[in-house]
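Students often ask why inverse folding is considered easier than folding. One informal answer: many sequences map to the same fold, so there is more than one right answer. In these notes we will look at a single instance of the problem. The structure comes first.
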């Protein structure tokens, strides 16, 4: 299976910074052996679609509405994202769960909306530090993934899953390769029980992945890529992870 290296720019960037970053990434890319994507703020989708046209880097959004359309002020529908060439939608990022009250059910519906529009949802799961310290890591990630499996049935083989321990996001504290692999194996087993095609589901690790630690994380048998925050904003770091 090909690996997927996806950047999550979060609420960073500007017209000028995006152009510089994408041009530097494309200039340094060469023949990449993996799939590559960048998840950009929605207002910049059109700009980034133009900059990425014809390149090996796919476009992603950081969210998608759980609704198809209509009176939902501020929301962006999957069909709209699709018009701007969006291939991936990050769904259920811990920052959306934490700051926007997204429940497991909302996240599952968002994944369903994405699949319905031909967009691959990158479904994020992960435990907080308190949950890890209470020995509840498995229970939490399995509950989060179970909701997505329940809502999406056999379509589950079309999703991407990102394991992002909340305590590792933006903290510089990475899960060790062994810690990450342990959770990835749990998620893989859960997906296998739900789908005969679970082997082709890419399981990404996210949380302070950087140019220095990416290789050892990506060498784990069930880690099929990375979802990268801070290091995706620096062309050289992102290129090193891709390489
Ligand atoms: P950092 O790589 O900045 O820790 O962010 C990870 C993340 O949340 C990606 O979605």
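Output (designed amino acids):
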């Amino acid at each position: 299976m090909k690996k997927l290296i996806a950047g999550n720019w979060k609420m960073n960037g500007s017209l000028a910074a995006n152009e510089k970053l994408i041009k530097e990434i494309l200039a340094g890319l060469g023949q990449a052996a993996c799939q590559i994507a960048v998840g950009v703020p929605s207002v910049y989708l059109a700009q980034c679609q133009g900059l990425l046209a014809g390149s090996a880097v796919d476009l992603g959004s950081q969210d998608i509405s759980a609704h198809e359309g209509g009176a939902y002020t501020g929301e962006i529908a999957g069909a709209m994202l699709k018009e701007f060439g969006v291939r991936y939608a990050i769904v259920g990022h811990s920052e959306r769960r934490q700051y926007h009250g997204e429940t497991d059910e909302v996240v599952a519906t968002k994944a369903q909306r994405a699949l319905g529009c031909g967009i691959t949802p990158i479904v994020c799961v992960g435990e907080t530090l308190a949950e890890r310290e209470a020995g509840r890591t498995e229970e939490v990630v399995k509950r989060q993934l179970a909701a997505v499996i329940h809502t999406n049935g056999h379509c589950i083989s079309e999703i991407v899953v990102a394991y992002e321990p909340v305590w590792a996001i933006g903290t510089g504290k990475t899960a060790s390769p062994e810690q990450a692999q342990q959770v990835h194996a749990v998620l893989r087993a859960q997906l296998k029980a739900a789908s005969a095609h679970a082997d082709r589901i890419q399981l990404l690790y996210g949380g302070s992945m950087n140019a220095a630690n990416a290789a050892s994380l990506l060498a784990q048998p069930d880690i099929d890529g990375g979802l990268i925050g801070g290091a995706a904003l620096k062309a050289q770091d992102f290129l090193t992870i891709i390489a």
